[in-house]
Amino acid sequence: MTCAPPCTRWARVRTRPCCRNCACRSAPTSTSTAGTRASSFTTTLERVSYDADGFCERNRDVLFTDLIELMQSSEIPFIRALFPENLNADKKGRPTTAGSKIKKQANDLVGTLMKCTPHYIRCIKPNETKKPRDWEESRVKHQVEYLGLKENIRVRRAGYAYRRVFRKFLNRYAILTKESWPTWRGEEKQGVLHLLRSVNMDQDQYQLGHTKLFIKAPESLFLLEETRDRKFDGHARAIQRTWWKYVARKKCVQMREEASDLLLNRKERRRHSLNRNFVGDYLGMDDRPELRQFLAKREKIDFADKVTKYDRRFKSINRDLILTPKCVYLIGREKVKQGPERGLVMEVLKRRIEVEKILAVSLSTMQDDFLILHILCWSACSRPSSSACWPAGLERTGNCRSSSTQRWT
Fold first, then answer.
1. Contact 169, 189 (CB under 8 A)
2. pLDDT digits over 87-118, tens only?
3. Which portions of the sequence form the region Actin-binding (predicted)?
4. If exposure means fewest CB atoms within 10 Å of the residue's CB, which of 14, 200, 217, 257 is most exposed?
5. Cβ–Cβ under 8 Å, residues 232 and 175
6. What count of Cα atoms within 13 Å lies in the side-chain half-sphere of residue 407?
């Protein structure tokens, strides 16, 4: 009894008489490409190509040595020719089986995994459309349930949920105390213990190992994170406060220089006199509620001083001039003629000029301290301008002009 090779048996199946007249088979078409020979058949669905090259090598089964010796001891020369192996040379023991190969590969995989530190990541698929903002709640719940995420969290909470090496813990929370910022000088374990005591964490909430810190409850970790966020917020506010101080100081110096430039080397008398520091509020408005009543509740005062106003007949009248970002106020004093306060001198708002209605501000080129406001005319008033004189001298005139220039230009 002889057994043909698998490739020969497969070739016979191709040409057996029972399939020659079958409706599912058409005449085979042979093609040769790059040293291989393939045949194609037309089935009920489509044309399928088959290639027998290397079929025996891919489907070779394990043959033990005793079976090979049995075949070589046959009296039929053909059978002996099918097994030409030399069993006496290079005896390598028992040949490997499919099971032994799988076992060896599994052992190699386990050995590789034991050398690593695995991190298990559970991926949740939110939808089947592969589009953003498409959330299938039932599908997500099903995955959470059958992936065992709830049980994993329960097991995690039963032990120590947070584990971190001392060095990484110090780098993250060093900002909590001055002793640990920017670097802790000393043993890492003592530094971690110092940080935990600084936030008053209970001793039963953490454990210190040889190289790692173990925190039990997530709330204890949240306490550390909240304290860290407050520290960052406080430092950010300090930086912001310093910056705004710098901006305000720079603006004040700039205004002082601009006021000085208006007077420097331009006065006819005392040309090289020393510069004065202008305060702006020369009336002390914080202690003058009788003047403050004419202004808005939180209106800022840029300049305030006593002036001498001249009317159309060039008659001088004493007034209090107050300059704010929105208006110019002229406040005078009159004697009450009627009522219980008869005979008393009271402050009266003589004029309130909005900044938008001031067209220009003029100063005299002579050695006087006159200031003229050019006001937009309106139907109810025919006085287009108003002039004032500072008894204190030209320095305050320049100060008022510098303050008004910041608002009107």
1. no
2. 676 556 666 777 888 999 999 999 988 888 77
3. 106-128
4. 200
5. yes
6. 22
